[in-house]
Design goal:
The complex is a heterodimer of chains A (163) and B (121).
Chain A: H1 5-8, E1 11-17, H2 22-36, H3 42-55, E2 59-61, E3 64-65, E4 68-71, E5 78-88, E6 98-107, E7 109-110, E8 116-117, H4 120-134, H5 138-144, H6 148-161
Parallel strand pairs in A: 1-5, 3-6, 4-6
Antiparallel strand pairs in A: 2-3, 5-6, 7-8
Chain B: E1 5-7, E2 14-21, H1 24-36, E3 43-46, H2 50-57, E4 76-83, H3 87-98, E5 108-113, E6 116-118
Antiparallel strand pairs in B: 1-6, 2-4, 2-5, 3-4
The chains are: A alpha/beta (163), B alpha+beta (121).
Chain lengths: 163, 121
């Protein structure tokens, strides 16, 4: 069973993130990722995230969103975990404001005719993130974490605890 | 044998897995976990337990639902064809999601050999 370890090798945690609205937030997160992972194209990531949100919101409920993109040109999967300074309307499935985001991006697979497509690994990591977020208490622990290191430790611990 | 026809008593390496889940949140987590394992399709049916039906439909059992294991509440049957070598891992996933086997509110699961199989699965 794949775990999040691939994405967590390139992981950024951002606490008390301020943004006006969803596009502003996604741009901020894309810039943040690119500032730390130089092989990330901020503009390309922002465009991919926004395009995905236009298909359907990635707000999965319980104050969590998982904006994600599968992109050509990425060297490796990465994850950016963000905790917002204030809850934000995100068109989530339960209509509740979002406080925690797990931005996940992975290299796209290539079809036989050379087109990019979402990789199986990306789908599996999305499923794992979604499953971890359903575990009772996990989100509350992340919301209460004092530091970025604590956030990452909680995610690693939860990821390692489950099949 | 036509194309797509894989016949043998489980020798083609697939088993039919059944799982009864007794909470909707467990169902969501189980299906997400199955995606993690690379299982791309499964059928899910809301089902009723023997105790639910007896205690509501058969007057002599009215009010005796508690006699039957986990006779109340929602439950779902998940079934899918899986590679034989994945069954143990799926059992571990089910236990991780639903709790230890043997608890009334946990899941039950079993698998059987598939004698023949046609189609994509």
């Amino acid at each position: 069973m794949p775990k999040l370890s691939d994405a967590l090798q390139n992981c950024v945690v951002a606490l008390d993130v301020e943004a006006e609205d969803k596009p502003d937030l996604l741009m901020h997160l894309a810039d943040r990722a690119a500032a730390i992972l130089p092989w990330v194209d901020a503009d390309g990531l922002y465009a991919a995230l926004l395009a995905r949100e236009r298909e359907a919101s990635t707000g999965i409920g319980n104050g969590v969103a998982i904006p994600h993109a599968s992109m050509e040109g990425l060297q490796a999967p990465f994850c950016l975990m963000a905790r917002l300074a204030r809850p934000m309307d995100y068109d989530a499935i339960d209509h509740e404001p979002v406080r925690l985001l797990f931005l996940l991006a992975s290299p796209a697979s290539t079809t036989t005719d050379g087109k990019g497509m979402v990789s199986t690994r990306h789908v599996k990591m999305l499923a794992r993130l979604a499953r971890l977020c359903m575990r009772p208490g996990f989100i509350d622990e992340l919301l209460a974490a004092a530091t970025s290191e604590d956030v990452l430790a909680i995610v690693r611990q939860e990821d390692g605890r489950h099949v | 044998m036509s194309e797509g026809d894989r016949s043998s008593s489980g020798a083609d390496g697939r088993r039919l897995l059944f799982c009864i889940v007794k909470e909707h949140r467990h169902l969501d987590m189980l299906l997400a976990g199955m995606v993690e394992m690379g299982i791309a399709d499964a059928s899910v049916m809301p089902v009723e337990s023997m105790g639910q039906i007896l205690s509501t439909d058969v007057p002599i059992f009215a009010g005796l639902g508690s006699l039957f294991a986990a006779s109340s509440g929602e439950r779902y049957l998940v079934f899918c064809s899986v590679p034989s070598e994945d069954v143990i891992e799926i059992y571990a996933l089910i236990e991780d999601v639903c709790g230890p086997w043997g608890r009334v509110q946990s899941a039950v699961a079993w698998s059987i050999d598939i004698a023949s199989f046609r189609g994509v699965g």
